[in-house]
Amino acid sequence: MGMHRPKVERFDVSGRTNTDPKGVVRPVDVYTEHPWGLYVARSADHPSFHYLESWLLPSLGLRATVFHFTAGHERDQDHYVDVGEFTRDGSVWHSVDHYLDLVVRTGRDTELLDADELLAATGEGLLDAATAQLAVHRMTAAVDGIASHRHDLDQWLASLGMPISWLPAGPAPTR
């Protein structure tokens, strides 16, 4: 299958940058640290979205993202949730993606994506069995928690003492 290695990102709070999985360093507009995680907001040069907001939530092994799509590229989703490992070393946070993703459509459903990628990566030795098992556990806990709060990610996180917020309408596209 030719699987890719787990995607790694770097979030340098003091330097106000985000290094993406391809090594591209981008400026960050907003970093806000809380006891439960890190909020990141920055512009994007992606053809499908012009801005993104993310919450890194280490204790849950989750990254919740809102993509602000460009016209004509909208998707039927409110939140995109990555499962992974999120750590902090001083003012620098690191993420390692563990392949599993969730699409949350608030009030309607939560969809699991990329289980095939997790299995393939584990089979190719890119993730060990213990890490894959932890990813499945984290995904299962997230799906259960989100679903038990009427598929509302924000409500579920608030119930865990992790109140999060997003830009009210998102920034206007720059192109």
UniProtKB/TrEMBL annotation:
Transmembrane segment boundaries: none
Coiled coil: none
Matching Gene3D superfamilies: FomD-like
Domain DUF402: 25-151
Pfam families (alphabetical): DUF402 (PF04167)
Basic and acidic residues: compositionally biased ranges: 1-13
InterPro entries: DUF402, FomD-like_sf, UCP012622
Residue span of region Disordered: 1-24
Official protein name in the record: DUF402 domain-containing protein
Species the sequence originates in: Rhodococcus antarcticus
